[in-house]
Amino acid sequence: MDKTVKILDYGELGLIDIMGSDDAIVEAARVSYGKGTKQVSSNRSLIRYLMRHQHWGPFEMAEMKFYVKLPIFVARQWVRHRTASINEISGRYSEFDMSEVYRPTTFRKQSQDNKQGSSDSCFSYEIQSYDKSQTEYSILLNKGAAKELARIVLPVSSYTQWYWKCDLRNIFNFLRLRLDFHAQYEIRMYAQAMAKMVKESFPLAYEAFEDYILNSVTFNGSELRYINWDIVDGGYKVTIDFEKAKEELGKRELNELRMKLRHVAQ
Amino acid sequence: MDKTVKILDYGELGLIDIMGSDDAIVEAARVSYGKGTKQVSSNRSLIRYLMRHQHWGPFEMAEMKFYVKLPIFVARQWVRHRTASINEISGRYSEFDMSEVYRPTTFRKQSQDNKQGSSDSCFSYEIQSYDKSQTEYSILLNKGAAKELARIVLPVSSYTQWYWKCDLRNIFNFLRLRLDFHAQYEIRMYAQAMAKMVKESFPLAYEAFEDYILNSVTFNGSELRYINWDIVDGGYKVTIDFEKAKEELGKRELNELRMKLRHVAQ
Amino acid sequence: MDKTVKILDYGELGLIDIMGSDDAIVEAARVSYGKGTKQVSSNRSLIRYLMRHQHWGPFEMAEMKFYVKLPIFVARQWVRHRTASINEISGRYSEFDMSEVYRPTTFRKQSQDNKQGSSDSCFSYEIQSYDKSQTEYSILLNKGAAKELARIVLPVSSYTQWYWKCDLRNIFNFLRLRLDFHAQYEIRMYAQAMAKMVKESFPLAYEAFEDYILNSVTFNGSELRYINWDIVDGGYKVTIDFEKAKEELGKRELNELRMKLRHVAQ
Amino acid sequence: MDKTVKILDYGELGLIDIMGSDDAIVEAARVSYGKGTKQVSSNRSLIRYLMRHQHWGPFEMAEMKFYVKLPIFVARQWVRHRTASINEISGRYSEFDMSEVYRPTTFRKQSQDNKQGSSDSCFSYEIQSYDKSQTEYSILLNKGAAKELARIVLPVSSYTQWYWKCDLRNIFNFLRLRLDFHAQYEIRMYAQAMAKMVKESFPLAYEAFEDYILNSVTFNGSELRYINWDIVDGGYKVTIDFEKAKEELGKRELNELRMKLRHVAQ
Questions:
Q1: Number of helices and strands (H, E) in chain A?
Q2: What are phi and psi of C214, to 5 degrees?
Q3: What is the mean pLDDT of residues B20-29?
Q4: Taking the model in full, what pTM does it have?
Q5: What is the secondary structure of C90-148 as a DSSP string?
Q6: Shortest Cα–Cα distance, C63 to chain B (Å)
Q7: Which of the following is catalytic: A30, A178, A252, A262?
Q8: What radius of gyration do chain D's Cα atoms show?
Q9: Which of B73, B68, B26 is nearest to B165 (CA)?
Q10: CATH architecture assigned to D3-98+156-214
Q11: Which of D101, B234, C122 is closest to A240 using CA atoms?
């Protein structure tokens, strides 16, 4: 297996190994249901049923292993997904390759309404401090400094590498969070590349994931108190008590509701 | 701390210890946001924000420890929640107390439309096989059989006991699944008792859990394809293309959609 | 892949799928060490080095999936290994096959010196209570009882089935604990069968596991205080201050020390 | 509770909250053993028994929560302990405090015999690249760059902060690995401070941990093949077949054996 794609400037995502397939997910599910599953007509229906009802067990029966080359600040977000196995290159053992640092030339501006996000507007800028850090790393190594200590001058944009192995349930959880537009652009690029590989390897499971997780819209109990569904001829008349909602939910939550309604009404 | 409630016939749920409080959740969240959280006006708002956006981290900072006495078949469902710590009485080490076995006198009938559930109708019945099993357990012990082997004749309705310690994030996940009407009645009784204890110990977090998780309704992407939201004066006219939905979603999924609509239109 | 072995009377262990190999473990390890591993001469040396120093990461990169048919009381011990994925047949969904219950005809006697173990002496006995339980299960089903409720009369020796998927690191941990003679005989039979399959699939890793984990002997700090190593010609003169050890360690711990010494002096 | 100690130059370790005590560990253990534990004379004996036999369950029943301020390169080692909960300050949300960067003035030299360690010899050096990185961080923020992007120029020696909550079993595992002299000096300083806090809060458990884990010596099966234990008057004559061991174990493993023998013969 040798599918590697380039991400950012020096990043890579390579699919190393797969355990299982859509069929294997189905096979595992049929163990749970014993002789009782004859009626579910097809693999596709069964996989969609499992995803719809968040019966995650059978999705844990599939596993994927990736090679990833990624900046340290991305690795720090990634590693928070604890249900996975990692083998990372050791900066105590190996020297960093200083020719490869994430070096954007266009910088996204701070979002005004999201305190932890970026806006769409950008400016050009060339990073200058890397040279100094890298020179100092070399000086320290030349003076005989321990690698584990010399590396502390390197920026968090330095690339690291690892093998990452994860079951499909937890890969879907990774994708749900990291494909989202709230995720930082840099990790989203990895998530998008990974999503393609998952889709190719598990087409039925991925389709179900898109339909039932990615593209779903949840109205919470708080919102539903201000949404009136009146039965009318051929459907419902839905009205939102914006005045009361604004008062009780607050401005921020009301905006979230508006965005959802806009989304479903597209 | 000594709050123990009775569950089923011989079952118990006791709250042994708590780490944290609503305040501690807030305190942990404020670490994440550094100096940037001044604007969120209150603890309640912040906790609701965290729950609404599934920022689970701060909820992991609270922990509860319970003593539970429960039938083995309930324990087998419970133990599938892996992110928790358990100390169970050892049937290899201690003799089972045979006077205490779960002994319902009313039996729920098999649900017709849910292959793994019960219906509302019941019948009376007195279990007779327990005596035989218990007598045989005694005989085996009297003959000098190892306790680890003698116990194999006991029914899965025998009571076991354990300490169960879990963080609040995973307790909410337990409750979400086990308070649901699809969960088996017996484990639901424990979940209901636990929910009360959580509500008392973490009133703000529990309120948010009810609003944003328990009482939410999710329309998935598959359903949204057949739900049309037309903007009309004062809100939306929502129509569902039942014909097409029936054809493409199938009968089972269509029923699920109908139930959701009935729920939101109440 | 179709390797299934019989365990106990109706039990089975089947190897369903494997991810990785000894080579894949080595490949993952070499990522950690970057360009620095040229000097380790062979795969075997590297795997042994990893195992000796408990660098478990690369062993997590291999995964095995098993089909298991096992009595419920064994399943209850097994499931305590939390870092694994399970898909179990649902007793709420499927009827138990009552012709298959673990039915030993020879019973091990209670160990005198180990409160949770068996001794070597046995007696013959034919279990009689199963018929009653099974008849009652049938009666309940015939009366229309929900399957989830009818099953509570069945003994913990009833067979269940599951898929169990686990990485090699955690499989070794399972084997370390369940191959031990303190483990209950019944689960040990599964561990022994699994060990053979692991050995066949990962011969180098398994050899290292035997050498560095299974066959190791640990002297703890408490014991070392009473073991004197005097350097003598060609080695050491080792004397144990049994009097003082007995006084301070107590009888039980002293016995454990004696057993270790007997083992290494074989 | 307010116990905070300083680590390195700007680092901190503060104990925020505790669940449980030595007594609570004992209480949990007694659930496992039911009525059968009367004979174990004292809490101390029981805790030592549990630790000696690696019955970790009761140690999971205790929990500690720490506030930690630590350099990013230390955080990256720390976070590999997956069985713990973390709430970290978000560099996407908050600006880094640039006045605080880990700035050693003495550098350890690379170890000659350990490719990932430091030696005892040092040299003086003043880091110069930090100023450049920090100035550039300010420039980027002033230009309106998103915080999530501006931070990429900062060195891995920048301090981050988090709440870290972990059960006592996994704290002991953290300490076992991070107190070891193979662990990098910087994380070892945190481990040492944590060890003191654990010792104060759980004196019996910590004493057992020292005796049975930290101060134990393990001879593996491979080594035992070359160690002959001959029973002599009053003990054993232990001889090591160094010639054969060197040939078959190799130089590296033989050195490890020599170090162990030197340790026990002290």
A1: 12, 10
A2: -60, -45
A3: 95
A4: 0.95
A5: -TTTS---TT-B---SEEEEEPSS-TT-EEEEEEE----HHHHHHHHHHHHHHTTB-HH
A6: 19
A7: A178
A8: 24
A9: B68
A10: 2-Layer Sandwich (3.30)
A11: B234
Instruction: Could you please state the CATH topology (level 3) that the domain comprising A3-97+158-214 is classified under.
Output: Gyrase A; domain 2 (3.30.1360)
- Tell me if residue B30 is catalytic: no
ipTM, 2 dp: 0.93
One-letter identity of residue C52: R
Minimum-distance CB partner of D152 among A91, A128, A156? A156
- Angle formed at CA A89 by CA D13 and CA C209, multiple of 5 degrees: 90
| Confidence band, pLDDT 50/70/90 cuts, at residue C247 | confident
Q: What is the per-residue pLDDT across C113-166, written as a single tens digit (0 to 9) for each?
A: 777 888 889 999 999 999 999 999 999 999 999 999 999 999 999 999 999 999
d(C-alpha D135, C-alpha D114), whole Å: 37
Q: What kind of fold does domain C3-94+159-214 have according to CATH?
A: Gyrase A; domain 2 (3.30.1360)
CA distance A19 to A229: 46
Residues of chain B found within 8 Å of residue C156, distances taken between Cβ atoms = 72, 151-152, 154-156, 158
SS (H, E, C) D85-135: EEEECCCCCCCCCCCCECCCCEEEEECCCCCCCEEEEEEECCCCHHHHHHH
Our CA-based measurement puts residue B186 at a distance from the nearest CA of chain D, in whole angstroms, of 23
Measured in angstroms, the CA of B87 and the nearest CA of chain C are apart by 10
Domain ranges of chain A: 3-97+158-214, 221-264
Q: Determine the Cα–Cα distance for residues C67 and C16; give it in Å rounded to an integer.
A: 6
**Pick from A106, A218, A86: which is nearest to A160 by CA?**
A86
Report the 3 state secondary structure along D174-206.
HHHHHCCCCCCHHHHHHHHHHHHHHHHHCHHHH
CATH 3.40.50.300 fits B3-100+153-214, yes or no: no
Q: Which residue has the higher pLDDT, C240 or C32?
A: C240
Size of interface C-D (CB pairs under 8 A): 107
**3-class SS of residue B166:** strand
Cross-chain Cβ contact B85/D35 below 8 Å: no
Q: Smallest Cα–Cα separation from B77: which of A75, D196, A112, C76?
A: C76
